[in-house]
Amino acid sequence: MPYVESFINIKALKEEIYKVTKDMEKFPEFMRDVKEVNLIKKEEDKTVTEWITDIDDIMISWTEEENFDDEKCLIKYKLIEGDLDKFEGEWRFEDAPNGTKVTLTVDFDFGMPSMEELLGPVLELKVRENSEMMLEGMKKKMESS
After folding, report:
1. 33, 55 Cβ separation under 8 angstroms
2. How far is 47 from 103, CA to CA, in rounded Å?
């Protein structure tokens, strides 16, 4: 099962970036590949959202649960249902010189060993590119505010 970890430094306070990241319904406004994020359920420290993305003209959709730890500025997400067998990870926000280091992790499994054998490196590259695009979108939004 592939695991991807990407990070970026953003010139903003971690609490500000964390707050923007918690509002995932707005991701399509500044993240190119994210077409829709619909809020299904909201509780104090948890949401359930439905995602639709377009990665190289391939539409991928899923429903996930996000758990928020406001004290640690940590978001953990996990697939509930969708086009993948496993899709989970976290957003971490750490103080860094001149701002915040934002880390996005993705642990995924397409559930088709033969497909992963043939396309594994390509799929992993696409997930990495998508993660980096999301982080760049976050950076652009936060640093232009």
Report:
1. yes
2. 20
The b-or-e profile of 21-43 (16+ CB within 10 A means b, else e) is bbebeebbebbebbeebeeeeee
Rg (CA), the chain: 15
Read off φ and ψ for residue 30, nearest 5 degrees. -135, 10
- 64 forms bridges with which residues in the sheet? 49, 79
Distances, alpha carbon 138 to alpha carbons 42, 97, 110, 116, in Å: 22, 18, 26, 29
Q: For residue 59, count other CB atoms closer than 10 A to its CB.
A: 10
Q: What is the pLDDT of residues 7-18, one digit of tens each?
A: 999 999 999 999
Instruction: Tell me the per-residue pLDDT of 36-61, one tens digit each, with 9 for 90 and over.
Output: 999 999 998 999 999 998 877 878 88
User: Domains, the chain, ranges and CATH?
Assistant: 3-144 (3.30.530.20)
Nearest to 17 by CA among 25, 5, 9: 9
